[in-house]
Design brief:
Layout (H helix, E strand, L loop, with lengths): L9 E10 L2 H10 L5 E6 L4 E6 L3 E5 L9 E9 L2 H10 L3 E3 L2 E6 L5 E6 L4 H6 L7
Parallel strand pairs: 1-4, 5-8
Antiparallel strand pairs: 1-5, 2-3, 3-4, 6-7, 7-8
Amino acid sequence: MSEMKTATAAYLDHVAFTVRDITPHLAFFRDVLGMTVTKRDGNLEKPSQVWLLGGLQIVEDADFRGPEGRFAHLGLICADVPAAIKGALAHGGKSLDKGAHWVEMPDGLLLEFLPDTRNAVETVRNLDPRRS
C-alpha cells in the first residue's frame, strides 16, 4: 500500500447528540462526571444546546421521538480548514447550505471543520492519555 499525504492535521473536538430534553442529560454529565458547560445557546435555565468540557455537545429537539439520543455531527479542529474541506470534497463529500465549514460525507456523516487556535492540533495530538 502506498503512503498517503494528508491535506492537514486535525483532532476530534466534539461529538454532538440530539436529545428530547436537555435538562436531565445536562444534570447527569455535570453532577456525575463533572463535565461543566463551556458554552451554551439559549437561556441559562433551559438552553437549546450546550457544549461540555470533555468534547460533548447536547442539542435539544423536542420533536425527537427515538428511544436514545441521535448522533448529530463531528466537530474537527484542523490546522488548515480549507485543505480539510478540499480533501473531504475530493473524497465524495458535498458542501452544505449550513455554512462553508460544513461537509456531508457520502454516507450522511456530517463534519464541522473548525480552525486551529493556539497550536491546539499539535498539542492535542501529542497527548496520549492511555500511555502509562
